[in-house]
Each structure stands twice: as C-alpha cells, then as structure tokens.
What we know:
Elements: E1 11-13, E2 19-21, H1 33-47, H2 62-82, H3 85-94, H4 104-115, E3 118-121, H5 128-136, E4 139-142, H6 160-171, H7 174-189, H8 193-208, E5 211-214, E6 217-220, H9 223-226, H10 229-234, E7 239-242, H11 245-250, E8 261-265, H12 268-281, H13 284-291
Parallel strand pairs: 3-4, 5-8, 7-8
Antiparallel strand pairs: 1-2, 5-6
Helix pairs in contact: 3-6, 5-7, 7-8, 7-12, 8-13
Residues 3-4, 158, 162, 166-167, 208, 223-224 line the site of fe (ii) ion.
Amino acid sequence: xxxxAQYLAPVTVRADGGVEVELAHGHxxxxxxxxxxxxxxxxxxxxxxTVGAPIANVAYTDEEHEVWRVVSEELGRAHRQxxxxxxxxxxxxxxxxxxxxxxxxxxxxxxxxxxxxxxxxAAGLVELREFYGSLxxxxxxxxxxxxxxxVPLYTPEPDVIHEVIGHANALASDRFAALYxxxxxxxxxxETHEALEFVxxxxxxxxxxxxxxxxxxxxxxGAGILSSFGETREFRGMTIRPLDLAAMGTxxxxxxxxxxxxxxxxxxxxxxxxxxxxWATCDDDTTARLAVPVG
Length: 295
Ligand SMILES: [Fe+2]
C-alpha cells in the first residue's frame, strides 16, 4: 500500500528547532496529542542520528507493544500459510520478538551477522536515490513509529511493523539480501530520474509486492504484502501476471490502495535470473529500451 520513499507524513523542523510530523486529518492518530508528541520525538531522534552511532531507543507505550503483539500473531499465522519458504527461512534465522516492538538497534544487531544488513532510522521521506542507493552499502532506512493503537490492523503509512516484519525477515535471508543489494547497485548506476523510477518500480513489484509459485501454490515474498493483515489474505484474488521487467517498470500503481496487479516469479531462481540480472546490469539505455511499448 505504500513505499518508504513516497508515502510518509511530512516532517518539518520549526524555527525554534522543534520537529513536527504532519499527520493528515484522516490519520487514526490525528486527534491523539500524546501519540503526536511521540511521533515528533521519534522523528527528532532520527534526524539527530549519525551513521555508525547507536540508534536511540524509542519509548513505546504498553499499548504500542500490544499492537505489535496482536499484529505479529496475526501475520505469523498468515505467513505460515502464505509466505514463501525463503522468507520463512529468514524469519526463523532472525527470531524477532513476538510480544514487544524490538528497538531498531536490536534488529540491526541481529541482522548484521546474518547478511551484513544494518538499519538506519528515517524521520520521514528519504529521497529515492538515497533510499535505494543505501541498499548497495547494506543499509536499510526504516521508520520507527508504530501505527495508532486504535486500529492495530490498519496503517496509512509504512510503520515499524512494515519495516521490520516485512523487510527485516526478508533481509535475514542471504538470497533476498543479495537482491536488495543489487537493487541498490542499480539505483547507484543509473543516472536519469526515469531510469531510477524504473528500477524502483521493479523493486515495488518484487521485493515489496512480489509473489512466487511454490509447490504449485502462489506464495508471497513482498514486504508490503507480508506486513499487511488484509493483503496477506487477499493477494491470491488479485490480477496475477507473469514476471515481466517492461511491465513492472512501467505499470503505475496507487500507493493508497491494495495492490491489485501482482507479478509472479516461477521460483526463487527465476526471480534471481530475471530481476537480479536486470539490477546487476541495467543502465539508462536498458531501462529506456524496456520502457518503450512493444507493437
Ligand atoms: Fe517497504
């Protein structure tokens, strides 16, 4: 439903140095001053982060830990049925806590010995080239706030549940981590904005919303599906197309709706062959050629 680089509440630094996260009127936390204050504080801490320094802890409330517990349990149940074996392998390796929100430093410390990936706190919007480019250096920009406790199974923006349950479990797999890194290298290599968008759309339709055939069934490996209560249950009913670079790189999507067109890899090897090879080799010309409609 969303993408880090594109759908985050704007963060502004006031003249007095205070940091403010602008939640939209329809946001479940809009009328909760304590939640808003926490969001501001979390964003302020993230803005003050220096790469290499420990990530400051977030003071989550008991209600917020309870949100994680509820969602984690629901998603865990769905994953056993609908997630690919490689994603479940990552989940098992990482061993995230089920009863409380882990701090980002803790997630980063658990991930690094497995695949080399580390987490960086993001206050809000991370520019496209920075977000994707950092993947080449095994850094993943992540939000830290959690959705409002009044609606635990819904979030209008990528929260720590999406970033950690969706992405960190995948990043704990050597094979997925390698694909994330290749996407980062592609983002660094291409020069035009159009080419960068093409690379990011291929990421969107694979590592965010990808599905794969496994033992004759359609399973999900994309972080956007696997962190969404609704989408884990509904993705099999969406329009599912064969893996196709040109189509993925040029299909428009609405980040505020359920993703209704999905692309199916025939296997992990197929994904690595088609998408991994594309990211490993693409440049501005490749993407421009692929972006031209055929026929
Ligand atoms: Fe994401």
